[in-house]
Structure formats: C-alpha cells, structure tokens
Design brief:
By secondary structure, the protein is of the alpha/beta class. The protein has 39 helices and 41 strands. InterPro entries: Apaf_helical (IPR042197), ARM-like (IPR011989), ARM-type_fold (IPR016024), Disease_R_plants (IPR044974), Leu-rich_rpt_3 (IPR011713), LRR_dom_sf (IPR032675), NB-ARC (IPR002182), P-loop_NTPase (IPR027417).
Length: 1243
C-alpha cells in the first residue's frame, strides 16, 4: 500500500474511533434505532471525505476552483452564495461539479441541479406549477426521496430553513429560477448556494457583488493544447509530427473548452493526412454540437439584439465601443442597451475599450447572417484586382457598410453612385479622383479614405448631419477641402501628409463638435482658421511657419494638446489657453520660455528638443505643480544621435502625494537650468533624486536646499570629481561607478544612511577614511588591500551542541558585479526577540555564513548553538571578492549538521579565488577541523555524533583537495587570467537579450531596460514595446548606459576578454518576428501569404548570421514548422515551386551553422524532403538541396543518416546534370562519386 493510502487509512480509522466513542457515551440518551441511524449517517460522512478523482484530467480547473473556494471563505454571511459566470462551452458546469465534489463532504444534505434552463423551460401563462415542480425536484434530490410533493410555494422553505445544505443551480437562464432562492431565509445557517449562468444580469439582480461573482476565464494557450490533446490523443501532448496541426486546431477552437473537446474527439484516431483533409471543413463550418450549444444563447435574444449580434459578428468585432455606438447610433437597434445585454449574456466582451467576440461565435454569426446584404468587406489580395463599372453599386440599395483594402478594386470610369444607406466607408488607396455625383450622405458616419487619388471632393455644400470622422490622410493630390458647414457632427478631421493641400475652408471654424484636427506635414498649407471646440491640434512640419495661432485661441476652453514641432520660423513662445496639458515645440526657433508660463497651471508636458536658439527660461516654470515632463534641449532628440557629455537627466520620485514622478532633460548649463526648473514642492517634500550625465563635474548647489531629500543617485556621472555637503535627511547615496570621484566634502551624520561607492576607484585617502569611519547602515567601496579584512570574522564559543540557523538579508546594490570591494555594515539582534525558536538558555557557538542571493542581496546566516539573550554588536568588514564567488544556491541547513562543520563550510564554500590569502585561510580551517576531529576521537556511542564526525572528515578531505588545487594555480594567478575567454561565461547582465551577446554599446530605453544599440534601434523601427517587459513605451528614445558600459569594460579587462567593437552591420529580425513568419508558413493562410513568408525567412537566414543561430536554439519546433508545408504536399512537393525553393534554401542556410547540423539531420522530415527536392523542383531548388546535404555531411554522425542509396542516387543524378554549376557540383565531378562514398563511409 502506498504511503499516501496508509496516511488516509490512519486518518479514517482515527475518525471512526473518535466518532464511535462519542456515540457510546450518548447511547443512553436515545433509542437504538436513533443510534443506528446516526451511526450510519456519520459513517457515510466519513467515507465521503475521500475526494473523488473524477476530475483529475480536467486541465487547469483546480486553480479556478481554488479561487472560488477562496471567494466563498471570505464571505461572512449565514448563507454563502457564489455565481459562476461565462460564455457557453467555457466549462462553468465542470467547475461547479469539481467545486461541489470538494465541498460537499462538509454538508449532510446537498444537491446538484444540472441544466436548469433545459429542464425547466418557462411556458406562457401561469408558471405556478413550474415553480412547484422546481421545488419538488430540489427537495427530492436533497433528501434523496423520490415521491416528495410540494403543494404550495412555501413548502421548500419550511423543510430547508433549519438545514445546512449545499445547492448547485447549474445553467440558470431566467429570473424566476432564482427569485425564490434569492430569499436566503430558505436555507439554514452555514448553507452554500452555487449558481452557474451565462447571464451576469441575473447575478446582479440577485444582489451579488463583484467579489461573489467568479468570471470563468478561457484556458491559457498551453492549457488549451493539453485539453485538445486529451480528446484527440488520450494524453496531454500531441503525437509525434502532429504538433503543428494540433496548434492549428487549438487556434481554430479559440481556446474554448467545448470546441477543443468536440474537435479533438472528432479527430481522434485519424492519420495525419486525414487531419489535414479535415482542416478546411473545420475552418469553414461549425460542428453541429458546438453550433447548437452556442446558439442557445443567441436564440433567447430579442430580434434587435440578434441583429446587433450579427452586425458585430460580421463587421464590427475588434472596433472601439464608442465607434460601434457612433456608427449605429441612428439605427433602430438600441445599441447601448443591446451591447450591455450581449455582454451580460457572454456573447461579446469588452477589452480595453474594444468590442471583442470569440472566433467560434463570430463564425456562427456569419453562418446565420445570410439574408440581405448589409455590408461588403474586401481584403487585399496580392496580384489580384477586381474591375468594376461606374454603376456597380447601383443595385445594392441596402448596403450600409463598405470596407475595401487598398488595390483590390479598380474603377477605370470612376463611380457615378453609392448606396444612400451607407453609414461607414473605409476604402484605402481608393482610385477615385472625384466624389460620386449620386449619393445621399445623410446617414454617413465615418468616411475613411487614406492614400486616395482624390484631387477634390464635391462642389458646393453637401449635408453630412451624421458624419463624425473624416480621414483623407496621405492623399497627396488633394488640393482643397469643400465647405463642411453642414457636417455639424464632425469630431475628427485627419489630413496629415496631404502635401498639396493649400487651405482649409473657413467653415471649419463653425464646426461646434470638432475635437481633433491633424495637419501634420501639410507643407503647402499656410493659413489656419480658428475652431473653439478643438481639443487636439497637430501643426508639426506644416507650412504654417511663424504665423500666430488664431487670436481666438485663448477662448478654446477644451484645448489640451498642441504640437508645433518642426516650425523653425516660430520665434516666440505660442500664446496658448490655460487649459493646455501637452505642448510640443521641438525644432522651433523659440528663444525664451516666458514668465507668463506660470499661468499654464494644467500643463503636464513641455517638450522642446532641437530648439537651438533657446537661451532664457523663466524661473516661474518651477511654480507649475502639475508639470511632470520637461525637455529643454538645443540638440535633437532622435535615436540615431548620441549626446555624449552634453545632455543631463534629472528624475524626482515622490513629492506631497508620494507617487509623483518628475522628469527633466536638458543640455543647457546644469547649474543654471536645474535650480530654475526644480519644482518648488520638491524643496520641502520627501523625494528621491536621480541625476544622470556623462558631463557633470560637480553637483549643483541647489541640491543642498532639498530638505526632504531621502535618496540621491548619481550613478554613471563618470567625470564627477567632488561630492558637496548633502542634506541631513539623506538616507541613501548611490555613487556607483563615478570613477572620477576623488573628494567628499560631506559628513554622513545619519546612522541609517546607505552608501554605495562601488567603482569609485579614484577616491582619495581622506574620502576613504570618511566612508569607513562613518556611522551608517552599510557602505560599499573599492579597495585593493583586502587580505587583512578577509581574516576578520566573529566566533563566540560557549558550551553545548544544539544548532539553530537564522537568516537576515541586507539589501546592497551591485554586490554581484563589484569585485575587490569592501562591504561594511553593522547589525545586532536579540535571540529572545527575533528568534524565539531557539528555546534553550545558553549556546556554545555562533558562526556566520555570508552569501549573495539571486537578487544581489547579502544573506547573513547566524548559526547558533544553544541560546543566549543578547549577542554583542560588532562591526564587520567583509570582502565582496569572496561574497560574489559565494553566490550559490545551497540551503544553509545543508552546511550545518553540527557547529564544527558549519564553521568550516562558511569559509570553505566562500574562498574560491586562487590567491595566497585563500590558501592561508584554507590551511587555517583545515588545521581547526583536524584538531576537532582528533579531540573528538572519531568515535561516539551517539549515532548523530558519529555521523557528524564522518561529515567533518569528508569536509577536511574536501578542504585538503581544494588547498592543493589552489596552491597548484598560485604561480600563474598573478600573471594570467583564471579562465580563458573561450570558456569564460559572460554575466547575463552584460548580454543583450536581442543579440544574445555581450554589449559593446549598451543603451537604456523608456522602460529602463538596457540593450545593444543597433539591435534596439532595429526593434524600435517597427515596435513601440519593450522586448523584455512587453510594456508599451512612452517614446522610442534611448540614452547611453555609461554605467553598464564601464562595468563591461572593467570585467573584460579583469578577465582578459576581447570586447567586440561597435558595428554598423545590419540586424535581422528577432525570434518573435521569425516565429510569426513560421506561423504564416505553417498556418492555413493563402498560398501567397505562405510563399511571401517563406521568401522573407530565406532572405533573413541568408543575410543575418544570428537568425540561423537562434532559429533552432530558441524557437519551439522551428524545423517542424518550416518543413510541414512541404511535407503536406506529399508527392506533389514541387506543385508550388516558389514555396519549395524558399523553404529548401532557408534550410540550407540554417544547416551551414555548426551547432544546427545535428538537429537538422536528425529531424525526421529534413533528409527525406531534401531527397525529394533533389528529384522534383526547379534547378535552383535541386542545387540547394544538394548543398544542404553536403553541409550536413560535414559531421561524421550525419553521414550514416544521409548515406542511404536513395539519397546517393538522387545526388549523383543532380551532379551529372549539365546545368548544375555550384561549387559543390564541381567538387563532386572533380573527385567522382567513389570519393564521395569514401568520405562518407570510411572503412
């Protein structure tokens, strides 16, 4: 019997004994029948304690059930109620079943009423009988009696009001099913009610709060794959060679458990070819079981709600909520209420302000919506074009939505009409030059036609009463905008990059709802009309020049964002209204920030990069309490430019609200500009100040005035030479790697201050002495004379043997990278107060173990034998030269079987450097250990003592071996690196996660992460997220990370490691991007998309050496996903010559890398597909297949895999072909096939 079963049996027996004893004591007070009944009931209760394993294979369900149980446990009410809410097929019933199974043993009476909406359908008229039948069902299952009759609606409450019951109401869909249960007086104290439903509104009507409603979440991607595999393969992972297909089906199911179960069951037992044949059907139509389940929620909707659902499924999934409301506002669909109803019923969900719908529900909606054509959506097809006549839309009178991707439609004659019911037009790259003459624009809400060929729109004034958004951006031939005075609802007008636009109509000023106007790069535009309703205006790089803003701008009470960057002729600071929040004036000719800026009390951002004439900044800027970001620079702020020593950055964290962040960046004189711009509230509030500059020589005097300064960081100020007096409030000073710092004109009077001078190698003796003698929480500073400090340690010996281990952590930055530094700290502790676990009154020995954890914090392990009340405080000076080496993941308890070994371990595991000091220490510790072993005699009647002695002997042997190793290396230690660069492991902090190599030009981006410059530049050209944290960046700017650069340089010098020189070589795509290319290649996309992705992958693997490097090592199933499309073609491998050529060529470039050869050759698809491609394919494909096999054959272990007769025969055939001119062919022809066989099969 297993140990777990034995444990359960012991518990079970113990419960029976306790129960039987209690019953016998009370037997005299009741009849024998009562005793038997009670005994039977209690025995059944005990037996029910054994949990069911019926749900062990339900992936991810336990974590969700645990959350539900937590929600229930937090409720303080007499009757606890929880609602489980989610869409059909997500697993609500399963979760309720598992929860019921786990908590039902706590209840004498319980029931699970399954599928209530199916069993109790409400009919028209009086539903009194239906309610009575519901109560009868409930009571019958609770009391396990079949013939219970309820004659009035008070029957159930009478029987249940004094009973502790567990009731699960599964798949509730109507209020009548809950309105009686809503009165919690139905059930006795301690009862629990669990309700599952697709309609959140019912739970709200029941009065449940947010913390009583559990929203069922979709399984994660990995969980979804496991669910599919359980039904398709009977295991939680796919069968070999089914991985790509399994992922594709998982995606088709949209992670919906119902879809995963049905599709997996349907595919179970099928061959790979049958899976591939079934995929088109799975993509195009819903399984009947899935459709019938999902359709239940749709069928109960009203006609208007059904119509709204179909609108979203066919057209508006993925739109912003406000846009959906706006476009459908004038319809009769009652959009606001309808969206709420659909969300309550789990048919849609809102995420980050967008309307989203599950893919299977979307597919269901498209299959339902087959009636009148209300919308047309044409996707762009490469190489395909549809020509239509000028009257093509004449017969489609009910069309409301038109979405055409660029280049799909060609209209040689233009269009003479559009349907009058159109509400939404989205037509990229429209070929139309003129607006259709026949079109009633009365219902049009959005007109989005970027990159169009329009020269002008319409003549005169047209009524657009509903038009809210108009986007004609990048229409380079557009010269004028018509009179829009009747477009009274217009909110957004986007005309950016309309380079030929000469003027805006004066009617713009009469648009009372216009909020956003974008005129970026309208280079020909020289005049601007005012509009008092504007909130955002972008004039950057336009032709406005030095013209003043409209005089009415001061009355624009809602105006909060203005961008005038690039207007080099603008000399004066623009007069903006007091409502302004963001002001961007980069690249202007502004000379002064005026005193009246103090009136802009709402201003949060002032950005002025590249303002070369800026000389004067008014001190009134410091009065702006809401200002968070300031940039006042003469240099441009572009990623391609490195500022060197000219730009400084100051960041203040804290303030009156303790959460504020103030960022300031400038290349003006720091001693002039920083005192001017420091916010006044920072002078007295508790703050942290971070200064960063490669050109800062002295700290500005204004720092002394910061009476609330608690933390000062000057990390990376590499030419800073002097540190002035700091405020007495300062609790932390981080001067890490201020390598030029020599003098400290400040005394540290706060005993709680933390000092970090790591890397400050030029500190004079006076400064060093000041640091070492200051009363502080800790201090870190460099020192080359470490031997004397390494010998200082603390041992206090008394008389007993019980061992007790306590840990304290001292957080100290940069311990992991600060070699040859001193770490000074002072601490004390009371055993009674801090470690009450040590219960005895005396102790014999106290030892310390110093290590560094994964977070670079110093861990001090106090090893105590017996207990004394107070330990004497003593200052310790510890060398980080062995602290960093001691960074190991050993549990402290493994070091201390007894005090003797603990003391040896604390040093033997620390001293890993090949130095004379270490050798001396090892000899000393060896002598102590041997003495103690001899004194103990090596023999004891106590088994524990004997084991301890044996461990000590083992420890002595290990120290001796280590001592010999150290001494053998000592002659070379002074003259050579301890580890050659070829095998030296670069610290992960020094590697760029994009290049996976040591950084030569480290730079910091907005997220605070550091990357290699050219790699992050490439990343930021296409993305606005941080590669590591995935957060959206506030900007794409970067600054050099001088600190990391200096640390890398120092590390390379110490370890004789050759740091690569900065390179301007182009950078390829990153693993995520290559992964997306593989998704396109292996997914059921169009042939053109597959071929395009394969072509790009081929180009990447050829041009960039790092792409083949991470292709195999970092991308899951990369070779399988690359080759699957060719394998799926079977004998018709050359049916798509372009796809075949690109995949085979990419495989060739991947195979050229030494570390990839084994993985490629051993993959079951690689060699067979290369062999097939030797026979079938265009000449280049066959040649590249031969070259790939040649590359793979360079490893002896691959020759046997390749050298079967079929492959050799195909190779010889290719070699003999006249058009085979590659170098490999020449080698083959020159030496012959016999040589080829000899090379591959040496005897």
């Amino acid at each position: 019997m297993a140990n777990g079963q034995l444990a359960e049996l012991h518990v079970y027996n113990g419960q029976l004994e306790k129960m039987w004893g209690g019953l016998m004591e009370d037997a005299e007070n009741g009849s024998e029948a009562d005793l038997i009944n009670e005994l039977a009931s209690n025995v059944m209760g005990v037996l029910a304690l054994t949990p069911s394993n019926d749900f062990d294979d339900f992936v991810g369900i336990q974590a969700r059930v645990t959350k539900m149980k937590t929600m229930l446990s937090l409720q303080a009410k007499d009757v606890k109620v929880i609602g489980i809410w989610g869409p059909a097929g997500i697993g609500k019933t399963t979760a309720a079943r598992v929860l019921y199974d786990q908590v039902s043993p706590e209840f004498q009476f319980s029931t699970f009423l399954e599928n209530i909406k199916g069993c109790f359908k409400r009919s028209f008229g009086n539903d009194h009988q239906l309610k009575l039948r519901f109560q009868e069902k409930l009571l019958s299952q609770i009391f396990n009696q079949k013939d219970i009759v309820v004659r009035h609606l008070g029957g159930a409450p009478q029987k249940l009001s004094d009973q502790k019951v567990l009731v699960v109401l599964d798949e509730v869909d109507s209020w009548w099913q809950l309105e009686e249960v809503a009165n919690r007086a139905w059930f006795g104290r301690g009862s629990m009610v669990i309700i599952s439903t697709e309609d959140r509104k019912l739970l709200k009507a029941l009065g449940l709060e947010a913390n009583q409603i559990y929203k069922m979440k979709f399984p994660t991607t990995d969980e979804a794959l496991q669910i599919l595999c359980l039904y398709a393969f009977g295991q939680k992972f796919p069968n070999y060679d089914f991985e790509t297909l399994a992922w594709e089906v998982t995606e088709l199911a949209g992670n919906l458990p119902l879809g995963l179960r049905v599709m997996g069951s349907y595919l179970r037992g099928m061959s790979k070819k049958e899976w591939i044949d079934a995929l088109p059907s799975l993509r195009s139509s819903l399984d009947s079981e899935i459709e019938s389940t999902l359709k239940l929620s749709y069928n109960v909707l009203s006609n208007k709600e059904k119509s709204l659902f179909l609108h979203i499924a066919c057209f508006f999934a993925g739109f912003k909520v406000d846009r959906v409301k706006s476009i459908l506002e004038k319809s009769d669909l009652n959009v606001n209420h309808g969206l709420q109803t659909l969300a309550y019923r789990s048919l849609i969900y809102r995420e980050n302000g967008y309307v989203e719908m599950h893919s299977l529900k979307q597919q269901m909606g498209k299959e339902i919506g087959t009636g009148t054509v209300l919308g047309i959506k044409l996707l762009k097809l490469e190489g395909e074009e549809i020509k239509i006549s000028k009257s093509a839309f004449q017969g489609i009178r009910n069309l409301q939505f038109l979405d055409i991707d660029g280049g799909t439609l060609n209209t040689p004659e233009g269009l003479n009409c559009l349907p009058n019911k159109l509400r939404y037009i989205h037509w990229k790259q429209s070929p139309l030059r003129f607006w259709p003459s026949k079109f009633s624009e009365k219902l049009l809400v959005e007109l989005i036609m970027p990159n169009s060929n329009f020269e002008k729109l319409w003549e005169g004034i047209k009524p657009f009463p509903c038009l809210k958004r108009m986007d004609l951006s990048s229409s380079e031939y557009l010269k004028e905008i018509p009179d829009l005075s009747k477009a009274t609802s217009l909110e957004i007008l986007d005309l950016h990059y309309c380079r030929s636009l000469l003027e805006l109509p004066s009617s713009i000023g009469r648009l009372i709802n216009l909020e956003k106007l974008d005129l970026h790069y309208c280079r020909s535009l020289e005049k601007l009309s005012g509009c008092s309703s504007l909130k955002e205006l972008d004039l950057s790089d336009s032709g406005i020049g030095a013209l003043e803003l409209p005089s009415s701008v001061s009355t624009w009470s809602c105006f909060y964002r203005l961008n005038m960057s690039g207007l080099s002729d603008l000399k004066k600071f623009p007069k903006v209204p007091y409502s302004i929040v963001e002001l961007v004036l980069s690249g202007t000719g502004i000379e002064e920030v005026p005193p009246w800026i103090e009136n802009l009390f709402r201003l949060q951002q002032l950005i002025m990069f590249g303002c070369r004439n800026l000389e004067i900044v008014s001190p009134n800027i410091s009065k702006l309490e809401n200002l968070q970001t300031i940039a006042l620079c003469k240099h441009d702020d572009v990623p391609e430019m490195s500022y060197g020593d000219e730009v400084f950055t100051a960041v203040i964290v804290g303030g009156p609200d303790s959460h504020g962040i103030w960022r300031f960046r400038s290349d003006l004189n720091v001693h002039y500009i920083l005192p001017i711009c420091l916010p006044k509230k920072a002078l007295t509030s508790p703050i942290s100040l971070h200064l960063f500059s490669g050109g800062l020589k002295t700290i500005p005097d204004c720092i002394r005035r910061l009476s609330g300064l608690s933390e000062l960081s000057i990390t990376g100020c590499i030419i800073l030479t002097e540190l002035p007096q700091l405020p007495g409030s300062c609790l932390s000073l981080d001067a890490h790697f201020c390598r030029s710092l020599r003098r400290i004109n400040s005394s540290f009077q706060n005993p709680n201050i933390c000092l970090n001078f790591a890397g400050c190698y030029n500190l004079n003796q006076k400064a060093r002495k000041l640091i070492q003698t200051s009363v502080c929480k800790y201090a870190l500073l460099p020192d080359s004379k470490l031997a004397s400090y390494c010998q200082k340690s603390v041992f206090i010996t008394f008389a007993s043997r019980m061992c007790f281990v306590a840990l304290e952590i001292h957080h100290m930055p940069c311990l992991g990278t600060s070699q040859n530094h001193l770490y000074i700290f002072e601490d004390s502790f009371s055993l009674n107060q801090h470690f009450p676990e040590a219960e005895v009154t005396t102790f014999s020995e106290l030892s310390f173990l110093f290590t560094v954890d994964d977070y670079k914090a110093l861990v001090v392990a106090y090893v105590i034998k017996r207990r004394q009340n107070i330990l004497k405080t003593e200052k310790l000076t510890v060398s980080s030269s062995f602290l960093s080496i001691a960074n190991r993941n050993f549990p402290p308890s493994s070091f201390f079987p007894n005090s003797r070994v603990s003391r040896v371990s604390s040093f033997a595991l620390s001293m890993e450097e090949s130095t004379a000091a270490n050798a001396a220490t090892l000899r000393m510790e060896l002598k102590k250990t041997m003495t103690e072993i001899l004194d103990d005699g090596g023999v004891s009647e106590d088994r524990g003592e004997t084991d301890g002695a044996l461990v000590a002997v083992d420890e002595a042997v290990r120290i001796l071996n280590r001592l010999r190793e150290v001494e053998s290396k000592m002659p070379d230690s002074a003259t050579s690196s301890s580890s050659p660069a070829s095998v030296l492991e670069v610290p992960k902090e020094f590697k760029c996660m994009l290049s996976r190599a040591i950084m030569s030009e480290p730079v910091v981006i907005a997220s605070g992460q550091t990357y290699e410059k050219r790699y992050i530049q490439q990343w930021l050209m296409y993305k606005v997220t941080c590669p590591k944290t995935k957060e959206v960046l506030s900007h794409r700017l970067w600054v050099p990370n001088h600190v990391i650069a200096e640390l890398i340089t120092e590390w390379c010098q110490v370890n004789k490691y050759d740091l690569p020189k900065p390179s301007d070589a182009p950078v390829g795509l990153f693993p995520d991007d290559i992964d997306l290319l593989l998704e396109r290649i292996s997914s059921p996309s169009s042939v053109e998309d597959k071929t395009g992705a394969a072509n790009e992958l081929r180009r990447q693997t050829k041009r960039f050496a790092d792409v083949p490097a991470f292709f195999v090592a970092e991308i899951p199933e990369s070779i399988t996903r690359l080759l699957t499309p060719l394998s799926a073609l079977g004998e018709d491998i050359d049916s798509n010559p372009g796809l075949q050529k690109d995949i085979i060529t990419a495989l060739l470039y991947i195979s050229c890398l030494e570390e990839n050869k084994t993985a490629v050759a051993q993959h079951p698809l690689a060699i067979p597909l290369l062999t097939k491609s030797l026979k079938q394919g265009i000449a280049k494909t066959r040649r590249n297949s031969a070259e790939a096999l040649w590359e793979l054959s360079k490893l002896d272990s691959n020759k046997i895999l390749i050298g079967n007769s079929e492959t050799l025969e195909a190779l010889v055939h290719v070699i003999k072909e006249d058009h085979f001119t590659a170098a490999i062919g020449a080698a083959y022809r020159r030496r012959g096939t016999k040589w080829f066989q000899k090379v591959w099969f040496p005897r």
